[in-house]
Amino acid sequence: METPGSQSSLHRANLERVVRAVRLAGSLTQAEIARTTGLSAATVSNIVRELKDGGTVEVTPTSAGGRRARSVSLSGDAGIVIGIDFGHTHLRVAIGNLAHQVLAEESEPLDVDASSSQGFDRAEELVNRLIEATGVDRSKIAGVGVGVPGPIDVESGTLGSSAILPGWIGARPAEELRLRLGVPVHVDNDANLGALGELVWGSGKGVRDLAYIKVASGVGAGLVINGKIYRGPGGTAGEIGHITLDESGPVCRCGNRGCLETFASARYVLPLLQPSHGTALTMEGVVRLARDGDPGCRRVIGDVGRHIGSGVANLCNLLNPSRVVLGGDLAEAGELVLGPIRESVSRYAIPSAARQLSVLPGALGGRAEVLGALALALSEMGDSTLLDGSMPAVAPVFT
To answer: Which helix (H) or strand (E) holds 312?
Structure first.
């Protein structure tokens, strides 16, 4: 029987610390585990050996700094997580294991005017199809991460009134999908999940403080502070799209005038080019034309970059992140948009904050949010579950 402060309880706590470090990172060398957990090299070595013998982790030879090392990752069959990304016009689902390997992934169009129940039906069908295709054991599913394009009320779990999907306002995605799938479900907005995806798999790897800026039908930011997503007490941190740039500017969907979103998001930018380029133009098309040299599209992309840079400068002055990652279709414009962003940051941010900042395109493209949903499910699952060898049967309604 374990008692607080006993050798057995201390050993158990150390086991969980090592499992958590590996689970969140995907794979770590034993030296990295020691640095991350604060445990001695000898303790880490003993724990890794015990976890390997128990089938919880896998150890493979690697190199670090030119020296031989051993890479530790969770066993590929230790558990399964599912990621679901509800976008403005798409649904994307991915299945991964606890070793951060994506086993299957698929996306399909989603009607922006569809109701939330229709969206949940489609997601359930797609999840079941991927489970069947991969042959994974449903009892191994540890949890589901879900991304939605709008703020989530942290107390009720409902999608806020500023959601970009009009038929989803008031929906409770975590509760609905928990009832349908029978496993723990965790929900966050798409910008936060984009930040998580880039932090774990993409351009944010290795940093502790970053902002992920997503520009699509709206403009949002996922904020990572000291390695963790910062959501704020009400869950609305990162609404960079509603920073006021011009209080006499266009009326925003939030009711204010001149928000960043009214100068940068697709719904406001595309009409500027439609008289000369046609009404079928998309943001992806604008970026492609700009890269091919179209002067009008290049001008619009540059203007959008400067406006985004003004918002980023405000973030620099308030939070001083070390990295900003640009996601969404706009990131494909490369230096056509990143250069103007850096120009505005240099002009409006505190010089010391601007000097420390790197601005990079996202590495994951349209996959950032669904991979972030996988990372959310991985981060929320309990380590005792892995050590005890059983998956939870009852899911919380909302976390």
So the answer is: helix 295-319
Among candidate residues 110, 79, 81, the one with its CA nearest the CA of residue 186: 81
At 388 the three-state DSSP class reads helix
CA atoms of 86 and 370, how far apart (whole Å): 9
CA distance 23 to 156: 28
DSSP letter at 65 equals: T
Render each residue's pLDDT in the chain as its tens digit; 399 residues: 455 557 888 888 899 899 988 888 888 999 999 999 999 999 999 999 999 988 888 898 888 777 888 899 888 777 899 999 998 888 999 999 988 889 999 999 988 778 889 999 999 999 999 999 999 999 889 999 999 988 787 778 888 765 567 778 888 999 999 999 999 999 999 999 999 999 988 999 889 899 999 988 889 999 999 988 999 888 889 999 999 999 999 999 889 999 999 999 988 999 999 999 999 999 999 999 999 999 999 999 999 999 999 999 999 999 999 999 999 889 999 999 999 999 999 999 999 999 999 999 999 999 999 999 999 999 888 666 677 654 444 333 333
User: What is the spatial distance between Cα 58 and Cα 39, in angstroms, rounded to a whole number?
Assistant: 20
Q: Which amino acid is at 168?
A: W
Q: What is the β-pairing status of strands 102-109 and 141-148?
A: unpaired
B/e letters for 186-212, b = 16+ CB within 10 Å, e = fewer, are: bbbbbbbbbbbbbbbbbbbeebebbbb
Written as six digits, the tokens of 135 are 């042959």
In terms of C-beta density within 10 A (0-12 exposed, 13-18 middle, 19 or more buried), how is residue 271 classed?
Answer: exposed
